[in-house]
Design goal:
Blueprint: E1 4-5, E2 12-17, E3 23-28, E4 37-40, E5 44-46, E6 50-56, E7 66-72, E8 76-83, E9 89-92, E10 100-106, E11 115-121, E12 125-133, E13 143-148, E14 171-173, E15 179-182, E16 189-195, E17 220-226, E18 229-232, E19 250-254, H1 263-266, E20 274-282, E21 288-298, E22 301-311, E23 318-326, E24 333-342, E25 353-355, E26 361-366, E27 369-374, E28 383-388, E29 419-421, E30 426-431, E31 435-437, E32 442-453, E33 459-467, E34 480-489, E35 495-504, E36 509-519, E37 525-527, E38 533-534, E39 539-543, E40 548-549, E41 553-562, E42 570-581, E43 587-598, E44 606-613, E45 624-627, E46 632-640, E47 650-653, E48 666-671, E49 677-683, E50 689-692, E51 700-708, E52 716-719, E53 722-723, E54 726-727, E55 731-735, E56 742-749, E57 760-763, E58 768-776, E59 788-790, E60 797-798, E61 803-809, E62 814-820, E63 826-828, E64 839-849, E65 856-859, E66 862-865, E67 868-871, E68 875-879, E69 883-892, E70 895-909, E71 913-916, E72 928-934, E73 950-951, E74 955-958, E75 964-972, E76 974-978, E77 995-998, E78 1002-1004, E79 1007-1009, ...
Length: about 1150
């Protein structure tokens, strides 16, 4: 390797301190071959340098702990180990007795591979470094390190610390030196970088003595050493002279935005740098860092310039070409910066140039080497172009237009592998926007060059961001930032497998885990599970399926919200990408990239969140309230802009609890610094977010909305609103169950001097009673004033007094009183009632018992509260009656519901009597006759006999505790005769003989039926008599003359036999049968006196009873079935002349009603 190589000496005797702290001596003979060789890139270091101590195992294997003696512990301080050995680590074992600085190197597995130990030069001194094993066997020769103080003069014309370039201890040199970094896993291939020729040693200041402008001398040179073969990146880059890379301009400056090619005058390193000086230092891994500084003057403008070369520590095999500029004058300087290089690879100056894709840059390939020109780096160029190099210095020929203001290939966004130049002398130019540096301001520029060889993986990582919220290009807390992480294999014939991204998200960002996406090698977007992000370690880790081949890209994107801690800061975020080089010993290849996100400093807003229960009529918003399921809740959020400038927009995030309904609308009121509304709008939440319009300077925004508390098991629902990570206070809703209050109602008879209140007592009319109502709040929150006590008193309670309410504390002491009238049977409580155990309320109310027929008066009470209505059990008054009642009813016997007169009610003192008699129903209402009566409360209506019914009579009723009921039943009365209209004696001859012509019997169902005349008596109240007479003698039709005259059956006599009285139908009221005043045999004389057939005389009722009117059909029947043919006859004497004609006579049946 390039640097100092220490060969073993013949013999060495050294003191070795073991792990137990005991000093021992050991020796290494001439025949012993050292297992370990220490390699250093130089022998002399400056205080503050990081030293790479490379430990070469010489193909041996260490199977036990290794002890490295770093000498005096004050001179060198160990930092870390860089190794491909799995699990290797070190432990410092400083010995206080000897002052020795011992490092114990150990591993879980045998140490087989070389490793590098990084140590820091702490103080001035000289150190001899050796190594030994646990068994005190010396296995190395000595490596000597000298540490000196910084020799740089304090009176330099140019200060090497003008810029914060990350190197703390610069040393001025008169000759250029070559920096070198080994390719990973290789001991024969190195990436080198210097100013001028490949061997260094160039007078870095000599170019300032040249009087003419040209681009030759101390130009940037980047090349690799591959088994001592030099492969340059730029034309003539393999030369050893000071004029190497003589056709590239390197970094250049223009002072006009439309300036075109002016070659040497634009080049910084060409010449004419005032106070040009060369410095070297070392990075954190001990790599050489070189820079040239000086004052660039042209067109009367001066800038301090620093051009710096250092290897990338990100894992890529690349050199960072960097430029720092500072305006050290008193006037602002406007300028433009670019870099132009004439490329060549492996001796070929006409290699086609292609696009790297994703606007990452360009590359050329000359097998087996590949040159990468990387633009997508921190502070990298915005525009870039490829052009054919000519001697006229065509550095802006690839832009449109062909001057500094032109645009380049970045506008085309070319795909990976697209050829931008074919078979010509390729070169490239990259440039940054035209800018202005105020006095004292500095700026940094960077563009990387990488070289690799097949089949190595050439990993590259990139990280970018895009602000998806801001509209003015500034980043603010609360903005939504989209990050893109890219990994690219820029190798040749290579394969990068098991690739994974690791990104530790800075605490200034809150990642949206639902936004994580992977874009694979074919450009397909894949959604990544939120579990890829570890909330504890803040690491986002995404593994890429399949290997990443040459020129392939993979990306990870995610969104994150900037938190308030980012205000006024530049937040750096680093992504690490690691994978396996499948073609080179399966070694791990990792690469990293950073992105800096600058945030403007903002005055943080003030957020105030309040809540109120609308259902419970909360008067004001407060930070805390109580609510029950189903209550409507109102929220109020005040966003106060504490800045003296308008906030262009803001995103409010208000994640409501899942047990709250989503609001239908949010009313937004914008107010100026005086609190006056300037505009308003109604918005709706989108994913718990609202985007507000511009907020006036020193103004505010007031947001109000309503929601409903859903069914929940939570006891508390908290709500916090946010703008970025500025959080409001907690608006708290204490969830209380709607448990109705418990009410206990009791009663006491004041008149009877009851000892205490009871749920049941006895009272009489005019007694004064008092109710006591105990109210216990069993809900989980206090009952607020305004609860409604309802008590609907029985109508038979009078003289209702004012209610008196005592409010008690937990010790049952009265803390408040209330006396008020009842209004519509209710009273509004003017005090609250705390939860059970903290207090209660007791209400008292008096009343009197009025005249009543009730035996019981029940009374209950209820209380309507926010938690529901509670009701007491009934307080029972047993009424001791002093009066009785008699009810008399008048009903149709056939229909109980038919009232013939209204019921009569008679009240009287218990024990007194009253005569009850039936009513006479007016004739206008019909001919109704009282029939029977009952003193039963509910007699059987279908019965006509005792015990339900008796003959209607008067009652003497005694008033009793129980209600007495007397019922009279009536029938509608009438009377009539039922008689045959015609008797037909048949046809007979006219022979004159003494003969009795008999009336043949009627027949029914082949049975003979005797003739009869009947009286139908329906409940008449008097007696009656049935008579019959013959109005005339049998005669012919008057209109039918015989011998000029009407003919009569002279001396013909109607004769009746077997007469008897028969009851055809009756009820059970007690009717008596009629009697006949004639015998069963009688004759009628034409035009003679009437014959009495039946007489009905009602029997005299008992005192207080009414006539046994009854219902009956009574028949005077002539014979029975056997006598029917011979019971009615017409006797005609022999002497009576008979003519062949029809003879008729008329009988008159009469019914005489007794007075």
């Amino acid at each position: 390797m390039n640097g100092v190589h220490y060969e073993p000496k013949p013999l060495l005797l050294k003191d070795i301190v073991g792990t137990d702290g005991v000093q021992r001596q050991t020796s290494l003979s001439k025949e012993d071959t050292p297992q370990i060789t220490f390699n250093l890139n130089q022998t002399e270091y400056i205080v503050g340098d990081t030293i790479q101590l490379k430990v070469d195992l010489n193909a041996s294997e260490i199977n036990e702990p290794l002890y490295i003696n770093l000498g005096n512990k004050a001179i060198l301080t160990p930092i870390k180990i860089s190794s491909d050995n799995g699990g290797i680590n070190f432990e410092s074992q400083n010995n206080q007795n000897t002052g020795k600085n011992i490092l114990k190197i150990s591993s879980n597995e045998p140490i087989k591979k070389d490793f590098t130990l990084l140590v820091k030069a702490t103080t001035v001194g000289k150190v001899d470094i050796t190594a030994s094993t646990e068994t005190d066997h010396l296995i190395s020769k000595t490596a000597t390190v000298k540490v000196i103080d910084n020799p740089t003069s304090k009176a330099l014309a140019i200060n090497p610390n003008t810029f914060d370039d990350g190197i703390p201890n610069w040393v001025q040199k008169t000759k250029t030196e070559v920096g070198s970094k080994a390719f990973q896993g290789s001991t024969s291939r190195f990436l080198n970088y210097t100013f001028g020729g490949v061997n260094g040693g160039i007078d870095a200041e000599a170019d300032s003595k040249i009087s003419s402008y040209n681009i030759q001398g101390s130009q940037i040179n980047i090349f690799i050493k591959d088994n001592n073969k030099t492969i340059g990146a730029f034309f003539k880059g393999e030369d050893t002279s000071s004029k190497a890379v003589r056709t590239s301009t390197g970094f250049g400056i223009v002072f006009e935005p439309n300036e075109s090619n002016d070659g040497p005058k634009q080049a910084i390193l060409a010449n004419k740098l005032t106070n040009k000086a060369y410095f070297v230092g070392h990075d954190s891994e001990g790599n050489l860092v070189s820079k040239i500084m000086g004052q660039f003057e042209r067109n009367g403008k001066t800038l301090i310039a620093e051009i710096l070369l250092r290897p990338s520590l990100s894992g890529t095999t690349a050199v960072q070409q960097e430029l720092y500029l500072k305006n050290d004058t008193t006037q602002s300087v406007s300028y433009g910066t670019f870099i132009g290089q004439d490329t060549m690879l492996n001796g070929n100056d006409k290699v086609p140039m292609s696009s790297m894709g994703n606007n990452a840059g360009l590359y050329i390939t000359q097998n087996p080497y590949k040159l990468a020109i990387n633009m997508k780096v921190p502070d990298g160029p915005i525009n870039y172009a490829a052009q054919t190099w000519t001697r006229r210095n065509p550095w802006f020929d690839g832009f449109t237009p062909r001057n500094f203001s032109g645009t380049g290939l970045e506008q085309k966004n070319l795909e990976e592998g697209y050829t931008v130049l074919k078979n010509s002398d390729t070169s490239y130019t990259a440039k940054w926007p035209f800018a202005t540096l105020a006095p004292g301001e500095s700026q940094h520029y960077r563009q990387d060059i990488g070289i690799t060889k097949a089949p190595d993986v050439a990993p590259e990582a990139y990280k970018e961001y895009q602000n998806e919220t801001s509209t003015d290009g500034s980043n603010r807390p609360g903005d939504n930032i989209k990050f893109t992480l890219r990994a690219h294999n820029s190798g040749l014939d290579s394969s990068w497998s098991d690739v994974s991204f690791s990104d530790i998200i800075p605490s200034e960002f809150q990642i949206n885990t639902n936004s994580i996406r992977l874009i694979n090698q074919s450009g397909q977007e894949i959604t990544i599970s939120p579990s890829a992000y570890n909330e504890v370690t803040r690491e986002l880790k995404v593994t890429v399926p399949n290997s990443v081949k040459d020129n392939q890209w993979v990306s990870v994107t995610f969104e994150a919200k900037a938190l308030t801690t980012a205000s006024g800061r530049t937040v750096r975020n680093t992504v690490n990408v690691v994978g396996i080089d499948s073609n080179v010993n399966q070694q791990e290849r990792s690469v990293s990239a950073i992105v800096d996100v600058p945030f403007i400093k903002v005055q943080l807003p003030e957020l105030t969140k309040k809540v109120k229960n609308i259902s419970r009529l909360d008067a004001k918003y407060a930070t805390e309230t109580e609510a029950s399921i189903g209550d409507e809740i109102g929220y109020k959020l005040v966003f106060t802009n504490t800045n003296s400038e308008e906030v262009p927009e803001a995103i409010i995030e208000d994640p409501l609890d899942s047990d709250l309904d989503e609001p239908s609308a949010v009313h937004v009121s914008y107010k100026d610094s005086n609190g006056s509304e300037v505009r308003s709008e109604d918005l709706t939440f989108t994913g718990n977010q609202l985007i507000l319009k511009a907020i006036p300077a020193d103004g505010s925004v007031v947001l109000t909305f309503e929601t409903i508390l859903k069914d929940t098991k939570k006891t508390v629902i908290n709500n916090i609103a946010m703008v970025a990570d500025v959080k409001s206070n907690v608006a708290k809703v204490n969830v209380i169950k709607k448990t109705p209050p418990t009410l206990i109602k009791e009663v006491k008879n004041i008149t009877k001097s009851d000892a205490d209140y009871m749920t049941e007592t006895t009272a009489e009319v005019d007694d004064e009673i008092e109710y006591r109502i105990q109210i216990v709040n069993t809900a989980s929150g206090d009952i607020k004033p305004g609860a409604v006590l309802k008590d609907v008193f029985d109508a038979d309670l009078g003289d209702i007094q004012q209610v008196r309410i005592d409010y008690l504390d937990k010790d049952e002491k009265i803390i408040a009183k209330q006396t008020t009238d009842w209004t519509d049977n209710q009273v509004i409580l003017d005090h609250g009632i705390p939860i059970a155990g903290q207090g209660m309320a007791i209400a008292y109310v008096r009343a009197k018992v009025k005249e009543t027929n009730k035996s019981v008066i029940n009374n209950s009470v209820s209380l309507d509260t926010d938690f529901g209505a509670g009701a007491s059990e009934k307080a029972k008054l047993n009424i001791k009656q002093s009066k009785g009642r008699i009810v008399v009813r008048y009903r149709d016997r056939k229909d109980e519901s038919h009232k013939l007169a209204e019921d009569e009610t008679f009240d009287g003192k218990i024990g007194n009597t009253r005569l009850v008699q039936p009513k006479v129903i007016p004739e206008t209402d019909g001919n109704w006759t009282v029939v029977d009566s009952s003193n039963m409360v509910d007699p059987d209506w279908g019965s006509t006999t005792k015990p339900d019914w008796t003959l209607a009579h008067d009652y003497t009723v005694t008033y009793a505790k129980d209600e007495q009921v007397i019922t009279y039943r009536y029938e509608e009365s009438h009377i009539g005769i039922i008689a045959d209209k015609r008797w037909d004696f048949g046809k007979h001859d006219t022979t004159g003989t003494d003969r009795n012509y008999y009336l043949k019997a009627k027949t029914k169902d082949n049975q003979k039926q005797p003739y009869a005349v009947s009286v139908e008596d329906y409940y008449t109240s008097k007696g009656w008599t049935l008579n019959v007479k013959q109005d005339d003698q049998f005669h012919t039709n008057a209109n039918e003359k015989i011998a000029g005259d009407q003919k009569f059956l002279d001396n013909a006599v109607l004769n009746f036999h077997n007469g008897q009285i028969v009851l055809k139908e009756s009820d059970d009221v007690g009717a008596t049968a009629p009697v006949s005043k004639v015998t069963s045999e009688f004759e009628l004389t034409p035009k003679g006196a009437a014959v009495n057939l039946m007489t009905h005389t009602n029997k005299t009722p008992d005192p207080g009873y009414y006539a046994a009117h009854g219902f009956g059909i009574w028949a005077y029947q002539f014979g029975d079935a056997q006598q029917a043919d011979y019971s009615i006859g017409l006797k005609v004497p022999k002497a009576t002349k008979r003519f062949p004609r029809q003879y008729t006579s008329q009988l008159t049946w009469s019914l005489v009603i007794a007075e």
